[in-house]
Each structure stands twice: as structure tokens, then as C-alpha cells.
Amino acid sequence: MKVRFAPSPTGFLHIGGARTCLFNWLYARAKGGSFILRIEDTDQSRSKKEYLDEILFSLAWLGLDWDELHYQSQRFDVYRGIAKKLLEEGRAYLAEDGSGAVIFRMPQKTAEIDDMIHGRITFDTGLIKDQVLIKSDQSPTYNFACVVDDAAMGITHIIRGDDHISNTPKQVVLYEALGYSLPRFAHIPMILGAGGGRMSKRAGATAISEYRSMGFLSEALVNYLMLLGWSPGNNQEIISLKDAVAKFDICDANKTAATFDMNKLLWLNSQYIKTCGAGKLTELIVPFLKDRNLIADNNFDGKFTGNVLQLFTERAQTLGELADAMKPFFVKDVEFDVHAKEKFLAQDLSGAFGTLKDRFAGMSDFSAAEIERVFRQVAEELGLTTKQLIHPLRAALSGKTVGPGMFELIAVLGRERTVERMERAIQLYKHRPV
Ligand code: GLU
Fold it and tell me: Which atom of ligand 1 sits closest to the CA of residue 150?
């Protein structure tokens, strides 16, 4: 068997297109068939190289490899040849305006398909007007080029969004007119936005490349796309592409529309971030840190980066969020959140900070456990509760009111940076507005 994904490079690859591609790919890999990528670039004014590049890059990034790649723009002669044959047979005619457009004479009949998802669908083609096959600029229309290619390329199953159902009868009559046998059709239900309507930009209709730059892992995104209209069963939600191949069948796709749920995608991404392993995660986070000018090209402390990463791995939902959380560890001067600044300045703790800083400076084993011991000892000596000291200290060291465990944070920050930041905090207390 052979399937195809046929994007038009007139826009970026979005969630819907990626899901269609994934279902085709999974079906081909599950059945040992082949998967064709066909670029439907017949509209030469709307097709753009930048879209094409993004589509190819995003598919590769998602791990959806193709066995053949075709461009419709290179096949205009084929379409014109077949249109000429239909003209000669009287099944098509030339437009009366002399423009050279070729028009298909729509037969009056009942066309029928046995859809793999929706079952039997019948269409009355008498309600459809004659169809243009070749436009006046000699480029083919979508329905015509699609049928010519699906037949020429030996496509056995057409899996696409059910927004194409209205095109299906126009294609069925062309198959018959050309003497080709019909492929099987599987029209997958649309993806709705959170509000129930069409997916809008706010409700997730964003280019796959944008998800990549927000810091979604390709494995998480592909896993999420699978769940938009299919389920591996047993309430399983986390599934790799490889395991999905073993279980996938297009007949099991849902009959009703799926709803895009950003929170679910974020949750899945956080699961993949947690389990992908320190080595891979470091590799993934580096471009995000570079992008934020937090580390320089090939000149950064890998061990330190890995340690900082570990502090935030548990909670991050995206790589972007992770890199933002890591920022305080890579800047010279702490930037305070408004709340952190208030909390930090509420009480003059320069004396306590001074004592604590000196003790930290004298430590040889700068581990979280040792830091905690010293910290509690100093608080007790000074008659302060740990709370009184811990929140201002967190603000002074990270600029934030929340974050990972305080003692782990200090251990990762290291003795030198900790002492330096506390010295700066003491200066800030001295200039505190009263
Ligand atoms: N180029 C069409 C699209 O992007 C392909 C539709 C089909 O799969 O037949 O919608």
C-alpha cells in the first residue's frame, strides 16, 4: 500500500497538517507500505520557498521521513497531456472565452465512497457544476492534479482532513473518466479550538516551527498529535512513535472532531522533559540559552549548565521556560522581580547577610546539606527564624520569590557567586529607601 501527504507550500505547516501527515506516515509504517510526500505547488504566485523549507524541516524534525518526494510544478506536461486526452474523448471542452482553459463535463450520477472512518457516503454529482481542469494560465486545478498524481503514483489510501469531503465526488468522477480504479478514502475529522470553533491562532493553530521555538520536544509534539483523533487504548497517553507504529490503524481513528488542548500538550511536554535524560536535555537547552545570550558559542561550562538544568527540570513545561528559569545563574547582576525586590528590601538584613556570607566564604564542602547546616546555625545564633532569612536570601541570589530548594540553589550557584551576590545585596540594603 502507498499513502501520501500533499501539502501546498502556501503557508507554514500547522497542527492540522502535521496530524494528517502523521496519520499517513503511521499507517504506511504500520502496514509496511510506502509514504510519499507530494508538494502541491501548482499555484506559483502563492507558493513560497520559505514555506516549503519550513514544511520539509518541520517534518524531518518531527521524525516523519518520506520514501519519495514529488513536486507538482515539475509535472505540468503530464496534466496537460491528460487534459488533452479528455478533450479528445469529449469528456472535457475548451472554455468559450478562448482563454485555453479546459473544463470537465460533470456527469450526472450518484458517486459513492466507502470511507474508512465515516462509512458509506453518497454524492449527487448532478448538483456539481462542470469543473475546470486546466486554468487559463495552463496550470492545473487542485482536484485534477490530485487525481492524476494519486493514480500515477499508485496511491492506495487517501487519508486527509474531512474538510476535503466536498472535493471527493469531483475526484471520484475523474477517476472514472480516466479509467483508474478508486483508492480507499479516510477522511479524518477536524481539530477544533478550545472554544469549540475552528482552530484559531490563539487556540493552537500555530506553525510547527513556532512550537519548536517555544521549546516543545518533537517527541512530545508528535505524541500529542497522535492523540488528536486516535488512542493507543487502555488510557495510555504517553507513547513513542515506534510503539504507535505497532498499534496504529486508520480504521480506529475517531469519527468525531478532536479538540486542541494546550494544557495537555504542555503536560506531555513536561513529561518528556523530565524523562529525556540529562545529556539529551543539556544538548536541547543549549540553543535556548544561546538565543537568550546567556552562554556564548562553544565557550560555556557544561558541568555548571547541567547542574543548573537539574534544578529546574522537574517543573518546566517547555525548554523556553526552562531557559528563562536558568537565567539568574548566567547573568552577572541579579535582576529582581518586583515582588522579590519588595520582599528583599522589607527589612534591613545587612548584618545577618554579612555574618552568613562570611561563614559561607569559609566553607570547604559547599554541598546543599552543609549549606543548610551552616544556614540554620547562623539563623539560630542571630535569633532569626529560617523564614525571616530564607525569602530575602532567595530574592538576593536569584531575583525571584519562588524556585527550587534554596540550599540546592546555593550549592549550584557556587561559593564564589553566592558570596558576590550577598555582598551586592548588602550594598543595596545600605542604599535602601526608608
Ligand atoms: N494540497 C491539498 C491541501 O493541502 C491536499 C489535499 C489532499 O490531501 O488531497 O489541502
Answer: 9
